[in-house]
Amino acid sequence: MDSWQSPTINWVGSDPCNGRWNGIKCKDSRVISISLPDIGLTGQLSGDIGSLSELNTLDLSNNRGLTGSLPPEIGKLKKLSKLTLVGCGFTGPIPDEIGSLQDLVFLSLNSNTFVGPIPPSIGSLSNLTWLDLTDNQLSGSIPVSSGTTPGLDMLHNTRHFHLGKNRLSGEIPPELFSLKMTLIHVIFESNQLVGSIPDTLGLVKSLMVVRFENNLLNGYVPRSLNNLTGVTDLLLSNNKLQGALPNLTGMNSLEYLDLSNNSFDESRFPPWLSNLENLTTLQMENVNLIGNIPVPLFSLAHLQNVVLKDNKLGGALDIGTNYSKQLRLIDLKSNSIEDFEQRNDLSHIKIILKSNPICLETGVTMSYCTTDSILDTKPQNCLLDICGPSQTLSPKCKCGYPITGTLTVRAPSFFEWRNETSLEESLLQELKFYNLSVDSVSLTISTQDPFRSFEFTIQIFPPGQDHFNQEVISSISSVLGNLSAYSPYDFITGNPGEGSKVTSNSSSSVIIIGAAVAGSCVLLVLLVLAGVYAFRQKSRAERAISQSNPFGNWDPDKSNCDTPQLKAARQFSFKEIKKYTNNFSQANDIGSGGYGKVYRGTLPCGKVVAIKRAQKESKQGGPEFKAEIELLSRVHHKNLVSLVGFCFEREEQMLVYEFVQNGALKDALTGKSGIILSWTRRLKVALGAARGLAYLHEHADPPIIHRDIKSNNILLDENYTAKVADFGLSKSILDDEKDHVTTQVKGTMGYLDPDYYTSQQLTEKSDVYSFGVLMLELITARKPIERGKYIVKVVRNTIDKTKDLYGLHQIIDPAICSGSTLEGFEKFVDLAMECVEVMGAERPAMSDVVKEIEDMLRSAGLLQTSESVTSTSSSSRYQEVSILNTHQDQPYSKESFGSSAEHLY
């Protein structure tokens, strides 16, 4: 505290754990977290930081006044998992002691002025998933291991290598890459690297983004790049690469390709380019291309930008009649184009033919010959409005004092040039997710050549008032700083010399602090007629969306009849899901069933999710799918698998679920997962599943009947806590239906309630019956129907209550008898048989089942207090998400994940 100063910090008292030190979190009177981004801190990081031995998070981002070197004592923080010092003023070398932080997961030191080499000791951080040293002054070679010296090649669990915008030199070591790597980003742009691109890069098949632009690389592009079928962004521009243009056949995930300004041999337009079905941006400026541009190139469905200037392309430009509806830029400046086949109205496409023969003819005044601007300024749909001094007009046409900063996009295809609002809306929803009250977000391209820098000015506007208070400013900066740790964006707040108006935390008085505003956003004022036209067009579009997409009007922050109360559920775009599953690659295909396929996906934060993708014949109508999402979004309990999100786009229906580490109960009972379930564990599994069902029946609003309880739909987390999964057949019970619900019979044979089957009247007691079958499955580890024998009848006919264990020795699973007494076994069997009574009215309620199992565990000394069956919500946004494998004939197994999932078992 003594070494830092801030105009806004307000620490009361001498004890940081008294609850009155903003940004400080403690546990048992020990500091565990320091999170103080963007509060104007000045000073240095004292070596005393090393005494905080319980510290697990240190985030001081966006405090430019923090200077000096990083103290070596930081190596004493053995429990540190997240070190984020983005956008500060730290200098000097990165201390070698940082390699002592064995629990470190996130290391973000970008946008400082660190000098010297990258410490080889970073290679010792075996838990590191994120390494970001971008935008410093680091020099020397990229360290790899040698003998007893560690190196970056040892970081097998790291997903991100962000080392761009430094002064790194030497060759890229071939040893840096191997089959063991799990990298998705390799970003080394804007350094002084020489030599060739190592052939070993092609071994890292998990890669999605490869950026080596703006270096001094030479030699041939290795053929092994064809192995990187999941790469979406490949940037090799502004080097000295030689030989023939690389043949990238098979890299069908490519969306952004830039090979510009290299020394490739003269060659005709490569035919494989017209087969890259996902391509959005093609940049091949000054690469010695000759001949005609093939017409099929422009018919690629997602193509937006084609930049081929400074080549020798000739003949006639013909984009055909089946060109991409997303096409907006064709830049062919300084080529040999002699004619232009203009068959349709192409006014919505920016075509640049300046310095071509077609434009050198006398009298030619066509627009494509007279301008070479790349992007038009994005219009503002605001009528004329005069804001006060230092105020800025928001996208919603309100005057205010926004938080202003710089947003740099490190992986270009994550940003769609055709629709900037997609990124703005994404950032707005990110802030709203954390309950931050924000009116709107505006992005403006901040350079004349966005294809080079990918840099934007971001402005975040307050709602209802004209300014944010300092506490909210700090929170917004923290959220966007954390977003930088999970995504391809860098956020740096403020710009030197700018000011921002905020309110004090303790009063409504207005003070001026150093946050950035105004001046960088170019606003076009529309005429009244244009505003009315835009409003009408928007209304028409909204009507079309409401008809084709029932989710179009969802807004989690507004309560209306069409909006479910979502909690930790996101609407993902198809493009996002495609990235997370590596284009639905076979390697991520982890199962299939009646619903469709299940894919493993990885969110930008590195978390694993399970994505159920409906096949054509199992898709529901839009309203039905919406109803299922609404149901899933309402239920939150520790014994229910959580819905993370969904996708309803391009005629796709996909559900994204929580990861439950030990898989399905069925796999454990059959031995496929290698998990041994003792009798005690089985009792606790039964209790967890019962609590989940009791919550659905008695605490969900309205109550819910699951209709498909079975061992394949009970998942086990890392503590073997049971979670009920798969709500695809679930049915809500409205107030006027509580006595019974007449519905088409659905469920799984063997678990199906006979009373429900014959009467077609569904009640909660149908779930109770299925749960009773599950209890018998826990005892016997047998399928409900095996070799023509029904487990309920087998147990009922075998029970002899005069004998030990009711005489069921021959059918009890031997695994539960090993080394343990079966305390409460007979009571468990009695309860199971009550649950499978033929008549629903004779079965107990699930809340009674919970109490019975709790009593069994309490009698055995395994349960101290009775836990209530109440709703519990997730404590973190990104939870581990289950590989939900529902409706499968063959449960997923360890082998289906491959060796990379060994840790799950």
TrEMBL record:
Its EC number is 2.7.11.1. GO terms for cellular component: membrane. SMART domains: S_TKc. It is an enzyme of class 2 (transferase). InterPro entries: Kinase-like_dom_sf (IPR011009), Leu-rich_rpt (IPR001611), LRR_dom_sf (IPR032675), Prot_kinase_dom (IPR000719), Protein_kinase_ATP_BS (IPR017441), Ser-Thr/Tyr_kinase_cat_dom (IPR001245), Ser/Thr_kinase_AS (IPR008271). ATP binds at residue 612. CDD domains: STKc_IRAK (cd14066). This is non-specific serine/threonine protein kinase. It holds the Pfam family PK_Tyr_Ser-Thr. One of its GO terms (molecular function) is ATP binding. Residues 584-857 form the Protein kinase domain. It is found in: Membrane. It comes from Cajanus cajan. SUPFAM superfamilies: L domain-like, Protein kinase-like (PK-like). Its main location: membrane. Keywords: ATP-binding, Glycoprotein, Kinase, Leucine-rich repeat, Membrane, Nucleotide-binding, Receptor, Repeat, Serine/threonine-protein kinase, Signal, Transferase, Transmembrane, Transmembrane helix. The keyword Disulfide bond does not apply. It is a single-pass type I membrane protein.
